[in-house]
Amino acid sequence: MFPYDQRLSKVADELRESPYFEIIHEEVGPGGPDKDPTGIFELMKEEGFPLTEKLKESYFPYRYRALHWRATDTKIPLFGEFNVMNIDAASEVMIPVQDFAWKKSDEGLLSGLSILDDISRGGGGQLATMRFLTGVPSPEIWFLDRFHTFVKLDLDYRSYLDNLIVTKGITGWQYLFADVSLSASEYDSTLESIRTMLQILPEHFPSYDYEPLKGRLEARL
Q1: pTM, rounded to two decimals
Q2: What confidence score (pLDDT) does residue 68 get?
Q3: Cβ–Cβ under 8 Å, residues 81 and 67
Q4: pLDDT confidence of residue 218
Q5: Residue bearing the bigger pLDDT, 145 or 67
Q6: Quick one: angle between helices 211-219 and 188-204, nearest 10?
Q7: What is the rounded CA–CA span in Å between residue 60 and residue 126?
Q8: Tens digits of per-residue pLDDT, 163-179?
Q9: Average pLDDT over residues 25-52
Q10: Checking CA distances to 145, which of 35, 123, 128, 211 falls within 20 to 30 Å?
Q11: Torsions phi, psi of 151, nearest 5?
């Protein structure tokens, strides 16, 4: 059993079963429930990337899970999207550095980032990425935005999935875990998205705890 595969699948089921939301796109990558990740973890360790037990527990057996959805009421500005990789796939595909490097000095960091969550289907051009450091058991998480450059997130791989599941991947949720001021005018649309989420999702999905996210929003205003 892979708990995080079940949880990610449940996100799609919850949205599909609600008349207030509609799914635009859904896709599951190659793999399957019979896949044993033990060999993958051993190989990553041999390559210098030993994973913590916490991160191993968050493995899901498909290369990726993708979902794109919106509120059925077009007057409500609420959209969600993710194309999240399992931790093995997330170590393989490097980002297109030229798309995000605003200056030459950025290239050193960006060239070491691999794609965790490709958030580009809706046209936002955003990526959540991982930075694997040799001998470090928990990769760094960086969020890239063509409009706001890039920022490190106060998350690890597993907590990224945890919060993705709670937020359903609404646009810009990652900034709740970044050292930015969401009161700045450049984040107006992100702030609207997050505020709409915190107003609507708790009503429709009361089994999830949104209070920590509300606290994080207050801390960034």
Answers
A1: 0.94
A2: 97
A3: yes
A4: 97
A5: 67
A6: 160
A7: 22
A8: 999 999 999 999 999 99
A9: 91
A10: 211
A11: -150, 145
| Helices and strands counted in the chain (H then E) | 8, 7
The vertex-190 CA angle with 187 and 196, nearest 5°, equals: 135
Q: How far is CA 104 from CA 67, 98, 107, 140, in A?
A: 34, 10, 6, 21
| CA 132 vs CA 66, 109, 144: distances in Å | 23, 11, 16
Average pLDDT over residues 20-36: 92
Nearest in space to 166 (alpha carbons), one of 14, 1, 3, 5: 14
Give the residue from 119, 25, 24 showing the smallest Cα distance to 74: 24
| 129 CB-side CA count, 13 A | 27
CA distance linking residue 129 with residue 127, whole number of Å: 6
State the pLDDT confidence band at 131, using cuts at 50, 70 and 90. Answer: very high
169 Cβ neighbours under 8 A, 6+ residues apart: 11, 67, 69, 80, 81, 82, 119
Structural tokens at position 168: 């359903």
What element of type H or E holds 126? strand 126-131
The strands making up 21-28's β-sheet, listed across from edge to edge, are 21-28, 64-71, 79-85, 113-119, 126-131, 140-145, 149-152
Separation in Å, CA 122 to CA 7, 16, 25, 202: 23, 19, 10, 24
CB 117 within 8 A of CB 83: yes
